[in-house]
Amino acid sequence: MQQWFLPAGLVLAIVLALLAPQPGSVLNGTGLVLGLVPLIFLVNGYQTRLDRLALRRRFVGVLAFGVVVGLLLSPFLGLGAAVLLGLPASAALGLVVMASMPPTLSSGVILTENAGGHTLWAMLLTILLNLAGIFTIPFVLGLTLELGGEVAVSPWPLLARLLTVVLLPFVLGALLRRWRGRPAPGWVRYVPSACIIVTVWMSMSASSATLFELTAGAFALVVLGALLVHGSLLLLCAAGGRGLRLAAGERIALLFVVSQKTLPVAIGVLTALNAPIAGALVVCIVFHFLQLMLDALIAARLRRRPAA
To answer: Quick one: pLDDT at residue 307?
Structure first.
């Protein structure tokens, strides 16, 4: 049930925002979104076992590759795809923001496990790249959006916001877990997804009129742009795994973690920008769905292959 909770909730949030936008628009005006984003990372921090962090020499090389490809190069892939396809401004903003994000907080680890990969490496890469992303996002996003002419971004205020709404709640959650010494109740795992669903519902309700401006042709270009970015990252990670001479399980961890992009941080970044975000949110959600579906198919195929 957990794996379907977020996708089903996002579909419901979009439908409600289109059919009855008034309640969500009113709640959006209260500033509730500003409290939901830190809650996501407080719970994620509580669920993360930081005591498992153990860096070894070969892993450091993989981590460096993940930073270069997943955090520094990826935003320019998003910008290139947006320019190549001639995406509308809001759609281009969403694609570049999503391409700038660190890995997903859970699905990359789950897919690695399902494909028979090195789960611990996947978890370590996820944690460390998300922490590194807090410091890379403001600067690469400011540069790419300035080059694309979409929206002006000042990196320092954005960095301060990410430290406040992402890193600080995450650390507090990890410290709370260490103090309590036991895992959270089962229902807590649904809290981050529920926060994302409510945030998407409120944000889209407040800008529901702009959603109808996205034509079928523009939506097809968004799908193609998301596939271009994610597909390019998959190819780069596959080549990097072989170039680094990693074992099969280690290559799988690199493939699924570094190529994926997290939706919660993207929502946090978009809410910090002084720009309409409804169209950009659609792109981020489409990107999220496509990467999950495509990688699930790849994981199933890898699972059936011999480990060698």
So the answer is: 46
- Flag whether 212 is in a domain: yes
Q: What is the CATH number of the domain that holds 96?
A: 1.20.1530.20
Summarize pLDDT for 226-280 with one digit per residue, the tens.
999 999 999 999 999 999 999 999 999 999 999 999 887 888 788 777 666 677 8
The per-residue pLDDT of the chain, averaged, comes to 82
Domain that includes residue 130, residue range: 52-167+196-304
Rounded Cα distance between 92 and 95, Å, is 5
Domain assignment present for residue 100? The answer is yes
Q: In angstroms, rounded to a whole number, what is the distance separating the alpha carbons of residues 198 and 186? A: 20
Residue 252's closest CA among 134, 120, 89, 143?
120
In a domain, 177, yes or no: no
Q: Confirm whether 121 is domain-assigned.
A: yes
Domain count, the chain: 1
Please, where are the H alpha helices in the chain? 2-19, 21-28, 33-47, 57-66, 74-85, 89-99, 107-114, 119-148, 155-162, 168-180, 191-206, 208-211, 216-243, 248-258, 263-272, 278-304
**Helix 89-99 vs helix 74-85: angle between axes, to the nearest 10 degrees?**
160
Instruction: Please report, as a single letter, which amino acid is at residue 80.
Output: G
Q: How many angstroms separate the CA atoms of 129 and 252, rounded?
A: 16
Does the predicted model carry a pTM greater than 0.70? yes
Which whole number is the average pLDDT over 280-290? Answer: 85
Q: Which pair of tokens denotes residue 300?
A: 């199933």
